[in-house]
Amino acid sequence: MAQIAKSIALKINYDLLSAGEKYCVEPDIVEFAGLAHDLGHPPFGHFGEEILNRMMIKYGGFEGNAQTLRLITRIEKKQRVDSLKDVDIASSGNDKRVGLNLTARSIASILKYDKQIATQMNKQVQIKLIKGYYASEKDVVNWVKKNVCGNIRYPGQFKTIECQIMDIADDIAYSTYDLEDSFKAGFLEPIDLLCSSPEVLTNVAKKVSSAMGVVFSREDVRDEIAERIFFDIFKLPHRIYEDFYKKPSKQTLEELHLFSITNAKNISRSIAQNGYDRTELTSSFVSAFVGSVEIDKINRSIPALSTVKLKEERKRQIEILKHFVYESQILSPKIQIVAYRSKEILQKIFETLSNKNEKGYLLLPPDYRRVYEACSKRKHQMRTICDFIAGMTDRYAIEFYGRLTSENSETIFKPL
Questions:
Q1: What is the largest CA-CA distance in the chain?
Q2: Torsion (CA) 104, 108, 113, 114 in degrees, nearest 10
Q3: Nearest to 193 by CA among 231, 234, 227, 225
Q4: Same-domain check for residues 176 and 324
Q5: Cα separation of 100 and 91, whole Å?
Q6: Do residues 110 and 224 both lie within one domain?
Q7: Is there a domain that residue 2 lies in?
Q8: Is residue 31 a part of any domain in this protein?
Q9: Are residues 221 and 197 in the same domain?
């Protein structure tokens, strides 16, 4: 994704230079945003995100983007914490850790949502993730805005051009590489998109309509897939048309129909099973989508808040592919097994570590235990436990769970 983001930045800079503009985007910051934006994702991705949000509902919830901001500005250990005064949560409530100690513009590049998440949320909203940043990072966000914008007031939401490019690159990567992964794993073939069930097409149409702000039917989705997105790979050579239509008899049309079905199936299987063909298809999509990103408006007062946009046609195609992957794969039974197991694993780990009667915090690694013990308020203690779990990989979470429950545990004596 970082490569896509940087490619967009270079493309935008070429367009600006060609137009005689002096303003340009900083590719290195865009690349950083691409590399850093998913750091806050917990084990099991969005499934884990939902579970941690429910477990933290009384303490400000959990959200992947907010966790990324917290990770790079608080949790990561680039600057040494020599004393508990650096984690002065007990006496003043202030967390003085600086994480990677990044510049304001770098931090701004991953700040997707200009909204503070409420410290306490009612149970009615616990299922829905609230996008934004935690109250604990409010001072960081204010510092970033002040350094990026100075004393100039800006209308609307705060979102730098580097962050916008990263956001677009994320959608491009999700809509193309996740689709390629589905082909590689044998879950899908390109022809399956053309033969999708009415239910999948309807759900995709609803989400595309919401994202694009226009009415989009399931027939529109099918037409877009068949006539634009995959048209070039499934179209018959002109020579075939010419040979068959010299004598358009019933037999000739039947032969053409059979040939077109066989041809489409063979091409679809080749793309799904052949790594070179898959890569070529994905590369063609990425190239087309990157090439469709353009400058929307240059903000002369605050250049960092200049805007970019995708051409409508390409944005529509990205939305279709993105939501199709979600509807056909993420909601499938084989993936829902992961969702079910991830809930059991993360909930058990969280409940164990947060058990005050059993002093579960003693199971934390020394660095996290040190921060936990510096916290006098329960909300800060719970956030520290959440930080630890959010930083786990899938494999480590499964292993940690196994060591708690003796389920396939490698050893209970392995260091944390």
A1: 89
A2: 40
A3: 225
A4: yes
A5: 24
A6: no
A7: no
A8: no
A9: yes
Rg for the chain, CA atoms, rounded: 25
Per-residue DSSP letter, 304: G
Tokens of 331: 């909601």
Domain boundary among 282, 303, 330: 330
Instruction: Give the separation between CA 44 and CA 346, rounded to whole angstroms.
Output: 9
**Cβ atoms of residues 294 and 12 within 8 Å:** yes
Is residue 152 in some structural domain?
yes
Range of the domain at 202: 163-330
Residues comprising the chain, all counted:
416
**Could you give phi then psi for residue 96, rounded to 5 degrees?**
-90, 5
* Sign of the Cα pseudo-torsion (113, 323, 125, 390, in order): negative
Written as one letter, the residue type at 68 is: T
Please name the residue that has the structure tokens 């073939």.
189
CA distance 189 to 265: 9
Q: If you average pLDDT over residues 14-31, what whole number do you get?
A: 95
The DSSP code for 362 is G
- Of 299, 330, 361, the one marking the end of a domain is 330
Let me know whether 243 and 320 are in one domain. Answer: yes
* Number of helices and strands in the chain (H, E): 19, 2
Contacts 24+ apart (CB under 8 A), 272-276: 272/183, 272/184, 272/186, 272/188, 272/189, 272/190, 275/184
What does the pLDDT look like over 154-187, one tens digit per residue?
A: 888 999 999 999 999 999 999 999 899 888 888 8
The answer to pTM > 0.85 is yes
Domain count, the chain: 2
Q: pLDDT tens digits for 52-88?
A: 999 999 999 999 999 999 999 999 988 665 555 556 5
Q: Is residue 355 one of the residues assigned to a domain?
A: yes
Same domain, residue pair 109 and 60: yes
Structure tokens at 177: 């590489």
> Do residues 292 and 172 lie in contact, with contact meaning Cβ atoms separated by under 8 Å?
no
For residues 252 and 183, membership in a common domain is answered with yes
